[in-house]
Amino acid sequence: MRQPDTRGRGPVRYGPPAPGTGLPVLPELAGVLARAAHRTEPEPPGGGPVLRDAACGYWWRRGLRCHPEDLAAAPGAQPLLSALMAAHGGDVLMPRPCPAWWTPQARLLGLPAYHVPTPAECGGVPDPFALLETVRRVRAEGGHPAVLLLSVADDPTATVAPPEVVRETCEAAVAEGLHIISDETWRDTLHDPHDTMFVSPAEMCPEDVTVLHDLAGALTPAAWPVAVARFPPGAPGRARTARTLDRLTAIGAQVAAPVAAAAAHALGEPGPVTARTAAGAALHARVAAALHRTVLDAGALALPPRAGRHLYADLNPLRGRLAARGVTDSMELETWLADLLGVPAPGGHRFGDELGALRVRLATGPLLGATPEERAETLAAADPLAPAHVARALDGIGAALLDPHDPR
């Protein structure tokens, strides 16, 4: 049941976009940050009133009612998730594959973590029957399952779980006494928002879901770390909020005041911010679709990307071709692709997948350009696939996967 320890397999950046791959900073946000640069004191643990009020407005506009006392902010999703899990204790369940930074947070807290298979049509949300079976086995082994992590708009698979899957999984989790932490970092990056339905677990099970949102997913640059959690209303939610704030205070996880000012402005969603969010989502959607075609043309497999800035490719159909190049597992695949492409290509073992499976997460960010000027050109282009550097990057991935001397 317990997953293999991935320590010692080398560092890789697998969270928000790495420095040098993000879109240009929105001038309006840069101005807000600059005007707040004189503020030398950090925000109080959990965030100040302006930041929490802005986060309330953000969630109210999405149908999730809340008040400032129902929220807590931290300098990034990692310390916030760590505090949330520590506040609950017990064993943690999460989908397979899952965001690469989830399992290390549980491990650092000394909490057992179990990965549950996802349905064939999506990632991010465990299959409800597999979830129930995993809970049963963990309890039979003397474990204490307490928390389920999930992400409807998922990293790494770039899928959006259908509402019926979300409902069945959430109902199964609540029936087994699990508290749900829903990572909704990528909810504002839907590739086709008019044809893709995103439903938050907090809408279905309002008393049993804490929502986590890392602003670096869509609203702010990755270099300005800030994340916000929305707790369930009522007494149980307030108790969880207090325990989380205690832990944030203990580790000194306070948002820098200038960053908090910019984050509050972004959460207010003025016109320039919403326009940039939409433009960024559309840009990554076009590039992700092209990347998906490239992977399929090479004979590999991948679910169609529906959100975010990634693609999760299954290269098992190319196993013979890759074995001839000395690639037999996801660690070797990660090293080989990173060396060949010059950008990180984290293997599936980083996301809780089996080491022997030849799966890899490919990011769209590095395809947008290697310099700020190239990325600005891509953002401004009527067709983001037209710039020469984008075409070269896609061709490079296709060439890496194709081998004319090794027919499928």
Keywords summarizing the entry:
408 residues, alpha/beta, seven-stranded mixed β-sheet, three-stranded antiparallel β-sheet, 14 helices, globular, disordered N terminus
Give a written overview of the molecule.
By secondary structure, the protein is of the alpha/beta class. Helices cover 40% and strands 12% of the residues. The chain contains 14 helices and ten strands. It has helices spanning 27-35, 49-60, 77-88, 102-108, 128-140, 163-175, 201-204, 235-250, 257-267, 271-297, 319-323, 330-341, 372-380, 388-401, and strands spanning 71-74, 91-96, 113-117, 145-150, 179-183, 209-214, 227-230, 301-302, 310-314, 359-363. The strands form two sheets. It has a seven-stranded mixed sheet, with helices on both faces. Helix 1 (27-35) packs across helix 9, helix 3 (77-88) packs across helix 8 (235-250) and helix 10 (271-297) packs parallel to helix 14 (388-401). The protein is globular and about 60 Å long.
